[in-house]
UniProtKB/TrEMBL annotation:
Protein location: Membrane
Listed SUPFAM superfamilies: EF-hand, Ferredoxin reductase-like, C-terminal NADP-linked domain, Riboflavin synthase domain-like
Entry's Gene Ontology cellular component terms: NADPH oxidase complex
Source organism of this protein record: Poecilia latipinna
Membrane-crossing residue ranges in chain numbering: 210-231, 282-308, 328-354, 366-389, 541-562
Protein name: NADPH oxidase 5
Length: 723
């Protein structure tokens, strides 16, 4: 470090020390735990003792600076000596003598199996990983045998150093991750970057959407100018109101066109999908909704100003213009002003209740019921404006026809929930008897109504089973709102056995009441298409699911493997080449990468049996696993270069190699700790040269922005699921 950097670091650490130390200018064990955010007391006490060089029971600023200087700025040997002392538990008996550049070993100078087991157990707790005692013993044994080179029954510092050299990615940045809190913020001058929306990659990857939006804006501008010129004799404010009114005629019908789900599903199977951004219809629906709000506010404001000016010249007062029919404005008994006020209130209410804050905060029903007021909006618009019906008649007829078809389809045949599984993280797995006429494609979604939960509510969910699965289809519903919580609680409580008693079956002691058979009536509207219908036209598909966002990919993965087996049956000689050069009309895929990111260990239990089956099917014909490659990430687990997790991650790697399966999920694919480093992930994908890469994502919107930015950088196509 330069002199300036060292001075800035010293100033920053001093400031942070004063924040957590308080008036006594010393940090005790509780303050230390809080500052470093260490979950497990074992590591907190070990780190604290090593920082507390004089054994006083508290850490001074000088002691903190010496320790942090080693951990953050020291060389690999210094950091390894610190790590060794953490693991050398019986050396933690007296005072720890420490100089400014390294820690001096004062204990036994070796690590025995019991010490290693104690450390690994604490590592598991720190990473929120739960494993049986037998598995902990296996992890201890495999790491100890690998590190104890001379079979002496203990691990020396040199042996630990030699073992760590087998993990270069760990040695690259060995530190206590929580100590990063005490690093000063980066003040380096960043090179000015071109805004994302002005980059060539952004315009190339969003060309259809941007061209569509340009056309949309141009059309609104033309309508606005034409209406203003037609009413130019009425004055400026009247012209402004009429211009916005004409734009509202168009937008209040176009917003409906964007939600004609059956028409859009049909269009996705045609050449139109290559021209129009059909996969972004919900985003466009939201944009048009905000445009309607803008035009209504300007339209209303312009009329109010115009009425205020008229009221000054006599005749009627302002409130009579706005709230009565006396002025006779409007083609239906002078009701234009009254209907306009009501329309303004309804549109504001609909837009507010459609916001992400309302929909994502467990109040989906508020959004659902207020959005149904679109019927009243259309009725009031027909009364309010003499020309609106001309814009509305054709789209309105198609919309009505869609609704009639949807009601008819949902009522034809008997659909019943025949099996229920309550999974970890409050996920309800519904198995629905599938009628013969019900056909869908991988990734499609449906609207479901379950009268025993809510008689009039319909909610969208992705079908998680493959179309090739006969007789039944699956839904996986995570409890995130009022309706989904009622669904979970209904099947969790004994009262639900009233409807399930004749069909109830306790499958095993493990599942117990979490698995039952029943016969509950439900109604389904759909299926409706999604962007994932493009997956089989891709050559290299990357599926990224976050949490419950795996549901559309569960269906897709099953269907992919079904078609993969059929292709191998049709082309039996492709087993030696991985079928990479074989293409057919049903599936052009040459490579599939599946990335699943979960917060905790239990979340992997949702689909682990399915993923295990997919691995086994592929392993039979593809020993190298070339076609379908899985990548699992557990965000609660600490990374490999964290001192609180390094031993555990090394042991998990060694045991996975020995047993050929992951200790966390049971899959052959090793679960990686922390979050994916997206730049490295996408760089590797681009280097595989398996054809054009198409990335399909389902999960949190915040992560979608990160992945989309990386796709634009590497020139990948990006598709986002909404259900």
């Amino acid at each position: 470090m330069s002199v300036d950097e060292d001075s800035r670091w010293l100033e920053w650490v001093t400031k942070q020390f004063e924040t957590i130390a308080g008036d006594d200018k010393e940090i005790d064990i509780d303050e230390f735990k809080t500052a470093l955010k260490v979950k497990e007391s074992f590591f907190a006490e070990r780190f604290f003792a090593l920082f507390d060089s004089d054994g006083s029971g508290s850490i001074s600023l000088d002691e903190l600076l010496k320790a942090l200087n080693l951990l953050i700025h020291g060389d690999e040997t210094d950091k390894l000596r610190f790590l060794f002392q953490v693991y050398d538990v019986d050396g933690f008996l007296g005072r720890n003598v420490k100089c400014c550049v390294c820690f001096v070993l004062t204990g036994s100078g070796s690590i025995d199996p019991d010490e290693l087991r104690t450390v690994l157990k604490s590592c598991l707790q720190e990473s929120a990983i739960s494993l049986p005692e037998e598995k902990l013993d296996d992890l201890t044994l495999v790491l100890f045998e690998s590190a104890d080179k001379d079979s002496s029954g203990s691990i020396t510092f040199e042996e630990l150093k030699a073992e760590l050299e087998n993990f270069p990615e760990v040695m690259e940045n060995l530190t206590i991750s929580a100590a990063n809190w005490l690093k000063p913020p980066d003040q380096e001058q960043k090179k000015p970057q071109t805004p994302r929306y002005l980059t060539r990659a952004y315009w190339q990857n969003n060309s259809r959407k941007l061209l569509f939006l340009c056309g949309y804006v141009l059309l609104n501008l033309m309508l606005f100018v034409a209406a203003m010129l037609y009413h130019r004799k009425g004055g400026g404010w009247f012209m402004l109101a009429k211009g916005c009114g004409q734009c509202l005629n168009f937008n209040c019908t176009f917003v409906m066109v964007l939600m004609l789900r059956r028409c859009l599903t049909w269009l996705r199977a045609t050449w139109v999908v290559r021209i129009l951004p059909l996969d972004q219809n919900i985003l466009l629906h939201q944009i048009v909704g905000y445009a309607i709000l803008f035009f209504t506010l300007v339209h209303t404001a312009a009329h109010i100003i115009n009425f205020a000016r008229k009221s000054q010249s006599g005749g009627f007062s302002l409130w009579e213009y706005l709230l009565t029919t006396r002025p006779g404005i409007g083609w239906v008994k002078g009701t234009a002003s009254l209907t306009g006020v009501i329309l303004q209130l309804l549109i504001c209410l609909m837009v507010f209740c459609s916001s992400t804050f309302v929909r994502r905060s467990g109040h989906f029903e508020v959004f659902y019921w207020t959005h149904l007021s679109y019927i009243w909006v259309w009725i009031l618009l027909i009364i309010h404006c003499a020309n609106f019906w001309k814009w509305f008649v054709v789209p309105g007829f198609v919309f009505l026809l869609e609704k009639i078809v949807g009601i008819a389809v949902s009522r034809i045949g008997g659909l019943y929930i025949v099996e229920v599984n309550l999974l970890p993280s409050k996920v309800t797995h519904l198995v629905i008897r599938r009628p013969q006429f019900f056909q869908f494609k991988p990734g499609d979604y449906i609207y479901i109504n379950i009268p025993v939960i809510a008689k009039y509510e319909w909610h969208p969910f992705t079908i998680s089973s493959a179309p090739e699965q006969p007789d039944t289809m699956w839904l996986h519903v995570r409890s995130m709102g009022q309706w989904t919580n009622r669904l979970y609680e209904y099947f969790r409580q004994p009262e639900s056995l009233i409807l399930c008693s004749l069909f109830y079956l306790q499958v095993s002691a493990k599942s117990g009441e979490n698995h039952r058979f029943c016969n509950i009536k439900c109604y389904v509207d759909g299926p409706y298409g999604t962007p994932t219908r493009q997956i089989f036209a891709s050559e290299h598909a990357v599926l990224i699911g976050a949490g419950i966002g795996i549901t559309p990919f569960a269906s897709i993965l099953q269907s992919i493997m079904y078609r993969y087996r059929m292709r191998k049956h049709t082309y039996p000689n492709c087993s030696s080449t991985g079928c990479e050069n074989v293409k057919d009309s049903d599936m052009r895929l040459r490579k599939v990468d599946f990335i699943w990111i979960n917060r905790d260990q239990k979340s992997f239990e949702w689909f682990v049996s399915l993923l295990t089956k997919l691995e086994m099917e592929q392993a039979d014909g593809e020993p190298e696993g070339q076609f379908l490659e899985m990548h699992m990430y557990m965000t609660s687990a600490l990374s490999k270069n964290d001192m609180k997790a390094i031993g555990l991650q090394m042991a998990l790697d060694l045991l996975a190699k020995k047993e050929e399966k992951d200790s966390i999920t049971g899959l052959r694919t090793r679960t990686q700790p922390g979050r994916p480093k997206w730049e490295k992930v996408f760089q590797k994908l681009s280097e595989e040269n398996k054809g054009k890469v198409h990335v399909f994502y389902c999960g949190a919107p915040a992560l979608a922005k990160v992945i989309k930015a990386q796709c634009e950088h590497f020139g990948f196509n990006f598709y986002k699921e909404n259900f």
